[in-house]
Amino acid sequence: MLRIMKPQRLCSLLCWIACWSVAYSALPPQLSAEQQSWLQHAHRFDRAGWIYLHVEGDARARGFQHGYLLAREIADSIHTAQVNWEHQTAMPWSWLVKRAAAMFVPNIDPENLAELGGLAEGVQAAGLSCSRDEMVAYNGMIELSDYWWPEESKKLREPGPGPQDMPRQSCSSFIATGSLTSDGNIVLGHNTMEDYCDVLPYVIEDIVPAHGHRILWQTSPGWIHSGTDFFITDAGLVGSETTIGGFDGFDSKGVPEFARMRRATQDAGSIEQWCDIMKRGNNGGYANAWLLGDINTREIARLELGLKRVAFEKKRDGYFCGSNVAEDPQLLRFETTEVETDISDSSVARRVRWKELLDHPTAKINLDAARRFEGDHFDTYRGRRQASGRTLCGHFELDSEADKPWPGVPYGCAGTVDAKAVDATMARNMSFTARWGSGCGTAFSAKQFLQAHPQFDWMSHILKDRPSEPWTEFRAGE
Asked: Which residues contact 336 (CB under 8 A, 6 or more apart)?
């Protein structure tokens, strides 16, 4: 006998079927046997605000592992990059993707292209939309927005003065060796200063490539380079960078910086080899002062890589520091607008503070000292301890003065988002210590900031909290 279902039960059943259908249609497509085999060699976990990611194999396999395991974070970060790009330039993201691919792809080596393709394939296999061209533009965001766009935008403007876009001045770093350190070998410290609404570098990636050197570095979801850049390799190399402030110059026919940085870090077995790869095809994009060390020789070096001028120094005793002021006189005068004596400028104030700490250390520099430096709040412009945009642990969001040229407004939503340190013993074991959030441990609440400073409401959908996190050790092979 046919039984008539009660209306409420029928409604419940129909709702269940509809929900099941939606859920089923949202499931990622079935993985191939090859893709499943790749994922058996990769994993991720979360710790103290960081995502730890292990990938290995050839380029396409590594890219797929990364893209599949971090698909949600990659999609969110690309959305963040898109919102920032369209707010900054008033140009569509699709417009940038098309031009970036046309400019960059012909100059990217086959291995990097294969990894970028694998990344897109992995994101797609997780059920999200992505293309290799989008990955190319996303990986090149720093040099596109801060180096290529200032020149490109001139072609689109009406004759007359326009906004002067300059590369942001961010990051603080030092490297020391010899008589300055507790064991006579290398100590390296670095923190990243950037817009809080930007793509954030909260990934620790352990890369075991099919050929070349193993890498442990900090990066952002979906990047084949570091970006911050803080790395160690099994060749005994350690490195970081700070942006060359006020830099002006870009060669659209050159090799993108993100491709050169990856090749240098994976392929180089010495400081000199690393620098040679970085100089090859230099496009001027993301012009940096690179602080490098070799724990086997106890040597440290600084490579200042402009577009027309390249400066290189190396020593076995002493230090190098970076705070966005070019040290080479010709690079400073001919390729930047920086005034190295203007202590009201964050980069100059931080440069002075580095020299105060490193020229007269109270004790031999070790990991504890490096962590203390990265959380330092002494403002040399004001002559007192006050967390601000001018301190090594930067807090533009707490500063009522508008630091020039970046972020350029009072209470700029920018500052330090991490801190890392490594000594020779840790580097030999492929490990380093890191803190997510800020070097001093101060928490950041997006809601409270936007309530206090509603002028930044355009970033309400991409600005994220950063709770106070502890210093944590990471090592390759976890």
From this structure: 244, 245, 246, 247, 248, 326
Give 12-28 pLDDT, tens digit per residue: 444 444 443 433 344 45
Look up residue 380 and give its two tokens. Answer: 């040399």
Range 292-308 burial, b when 16+ CB lie within 10 A, else e: bbbbeebbbbbbbbbbe
Is the per-residue pLDDT at 322 higher than 60?
A: yes
pTM for this prediction: 0.93
The percent of residues above 70 in pLDDT, for the chain, comes to 91
